[in-house]
Design goal:
Keywords: Membrane, Transmembrane, Transmembrane helix. Residues 523-773 form the EAL domain. There is one protein chain. The chain is 53% helix and 17% strand. With 786 residues, it is α/β, with parallel strands linked by helices. The protein folds into 4 domains: 15-208; 226-338, PAS domain (Beta-Lactamase, 2-Layer Sandwich), CATH 3.30.450.20; 347-512, Alpha-Beta Plaits (2-Layer Sandwich), CATH 3.30.70.270; 525-771, EAL domain (TIM Barrel, Alpha-Beta Barrel), CATH 3.20.20.450. The strands form 4 sheets. Strands 13-14-16-17-18-19-20-21 form an 8-stranded mixed barrel, surrounded by 5 helices. A 5-stranded antiparallel sheet has the order 2-1-5-4-3, with helices on both faces. Strand 13 and strand 14 form a beta hairpin. The protein is elongated.
Length: 786
Amino acid sequence: MRRLGRRGSDDHLSDYDRHRLLNRRLEFTSRVLPWAFLIAAIALSTIVVLLPADTGMFRWVWPSVVAVSSIAFSLYWLGRSRLGVSESQTTELVVLTTQVVVWGVLLACLALVLFPILDPGNELVLTSTLMGGIAVGVFPTLMFRGFTLIWIGLVGLGLAGGFWTEPEPSRYVLIGVLVIFVGSLYSGTLLLANLFERRLRAELVAEDERDLVELLLNDLEDGAQDWLWETDSRGIASTVSYRFAEQVGLPAAQIRGRTMHEILIGIGASRTDAGRKSLDLLTANFQAGTAFRDLTMQVVVRGDTRWWSMSGHPASGDGADYGWRGVGSDITHSYHQRQNILRLAEVDSLTGLRNRYSFNSQLSSRLRDGRRVWLAILDLDNFKSINDRLGHHVGDDVLRDVASRLHSVLRSNEICGRLGGDEFAIAFDDSAFDDSAFDDIASADEVEERFQTILDSFERPFSLVGNQIRIRASLGYGSMPDDADSLEDLVIVADLALYHAKESGRNQIRAFDATLRDRATGRARALLDLRRALIDEEFELVYQPQVSAATGVVVGFEALLRWNHPTSGLVSPGDFISVAEETGLIVPIGAGVLRAACTAATTWPEDIRVAVNVSQVQLRSSRYVESVRQTLNEVNLHPSRLEIEVTESLVIDDADRDVLVQLSALGIAIAMDDFGTGFSSVASLARLPLDRLKIDRAFVAPLDADPSNSRFAVLRAVIAIAKSLGLDTVAEGVETERQRAIVTECGCDVIQGYLEGMPIRAAEIPDYLNERPGGPSRLGVAATTE
C-alpha cells in the first residue's frame, strides 16, 4: 500500500499520490470557493451601490462585472463539487488562477477608484470591507499558497494605492497598518494551510488502509462459507445479507419478513429426524432466549444437499424487545471429512469389515441388552506361509477374499469384524434361534452347526495369482453369561478356545471349557518359570548314543534338553518347548544348548559328531547362521562335527531352506528329524541340503510284531528313498534286538534307542565309550534339544 508523507513538500510523493493530493485540494477549494466569493460579491456590490458619493457609472458597472464573474465561477465550481463534473486538473488550476486574478483586480480597482472620491467615514467602511474581503478570499485559496499570495498581493496593492491618495502623514500609517495586517494574515494562513495539508494526507492514508482492509475482507468473503443472519424479537428475518440470500438460494426480498424457522423448513431442514431435532432445539432456544452454538442441520439448496452449522445469541433491542443475531456456516466439506474419518475409525480399511473397536462396541451393546451372546474367533491356519511364499500383496488379497466369504454367509443378526492380522471375529445373540425350542443341549448343537457352516465356506478353493489355493481356518468360541461375565473375559475365553482348536490339529472348531483356563494359567506360570530358569541356569543336557547298525561302533550322540525345575523336578521338553517357542524364549534357550553341546563335543574323540535340534523359531531369528558360526569359533569345534536336526513338519518355507543352505555351506551336517510324521514329499527332500534322515520311532515300535506288516514295507520304502537321494538313515526308538535286526536288514545305517544306551550326562560319556566293544569310536557323534 502507498504511504503518503506528512511533510509540506510533494517532492517525495509518487505521481499517483501527488495527483490524489492535488485532487483533494481542488475538491476542498471547489466546496468553499463559490460560497466565499459569492458572499463577498454580494457584500461589496451592496456597499458600492449604496455609497452616498457620486461614483457615476462605476456604481453599476463594477457590481455587474462582479455579479457576472461570480455567477460564472460559482456555477463551474458547484458543478465540479456537487454534480461530479470535473475537468482535468490543469483546467481547474487555470480556472482557479483566473478567478483569483480577476477578483483580485476587481477589489484593487475598487480601492483605487473609490478612495480618492470618498469622505473619511466612507473610506473607513471601504477599508474595513476590503480588508475583510482579503481575509475571506484567503480561506478558499488556503490549499494553494501561491494563489493565496497572489490574492493578498493584488488586493493589498490596491488598498495601498488607495491609501497613497490620503494626506501625507496618514498614508504612511495606513500603509504600515496594511503591511502588518497582510503579513500577519499570510503567516496565519501558512500555519492553517499546514494543518489542513496534514489532515488531507491523513485522510488519504486512512482511505488507503480502509481500501486494503476491504480488499482483504472481500477476498475472505469470496472464499469463506460463513454469513450473518439477524431477526427481530419474533424471529422474523429483518436484515438479509447478500451472503445469507446466496446460501439460501433465494432473493433477499423473498426471505425478508419470514421467520428463521420458516426459512429453514423451506430449504428442507425438516426432512430428516436429525433436522427436526435441530429445528426443535432452535425454536426452544428462541423461546428461552438462550444462546446456542454449532447447531448442525441438513438443508437442500438448488437441489444440492448441504450441511449447515448455526450459532446465535439474543441481541438487545429498543425497550424490552430482543432480537437475534448469529453466524451460519456451510460445513458440507468438513462434515463429509468428519463422516469419512468416523467411517475409517469403525471399518477395517483392508477388508471393509468392522475393525476391532467397532466390533467390540457393537458386541458391548448386545451384552448391555442382557442377551445371551456367542463370540467366535477365527484364525487362518496357513496364512503366514502364504505371505512368505507369495508375498504380502497376495496375503492382502487372501484377507479380502476371506472377508467376502464371511460376509456372504452372515445372517442379519450377526456381526463380523477383523481383529487384526488374519484373525476374524463373529458374534450373534439368542435371537438367531427359535426360543420355543431353546434349551442347553439344542443350543450347543445349533451353535456348533452354525460355526461349522461358517468354516464350510472355506471349502471352495480361493483363486489367487492364477492358482487355486485352499485355505483352512481354526475357530474357537465361548458364550456369555455361561463362560464369561464381561466383554474382556468373553474375548479371552474365545481366544483360549481358538488356541485349543489349533493345538487339536487345525481346521477345527472348539468350544471353551473350564480346563482351558487352567491350562492357560499353567502356561503363564510356565512362562514365568522359564524366564527364571534361564537366569538360574536350570537347563541341562543329556546325550543319547547313536551307533553303527553294521559294526555297533558309536558314531554320534544326540543331546537331549532337560529342565531341572526346583519344585516339579525333571521336566521333559514336550512340556515347555511349545511355550518357549510362542514367547521367543526358545532363541536364548537354543543358543545355550548349542554352546553347551559344542563345548562338550570338544572333549570327545575328533571323529564323534554332536547334533542340536533346532526349531523353526530359531531358524527365522535374526543372524542365526552367524551365531552358529561364532559359537563354533569360540569353542574351537570344527563345523563337520556339528549336525543340525530340523523337524520335518516345520521345513515348509523357502526362508527355512535358505538358512539350511547357509549352514550346509559352513560344513555343518543337516538331518531331518521324525521323518514320516510330517508333510514332506520326495520333491521337497530333494530341494533341501540334507545329509541324513531320522526315521521316527512310530515306524520302529511295531517291528516286534509280524515283519510282513505295512510298517515293515513303509520302513523299507523310506530307506530306499533315502538311499536314492544319497542320504544316511537313523532309526530312532530301537529298544529290542529284533527291532535292531530288522532295521539293519532293511539297510538302515545308524541305530538310536534304549537298546544301545540311555541318555547320559556329558561327564559319563568317556566311561561309556571305554566300555563299548572296540573302545572309543572313530566315526562320529550327534546331539539335539528334544
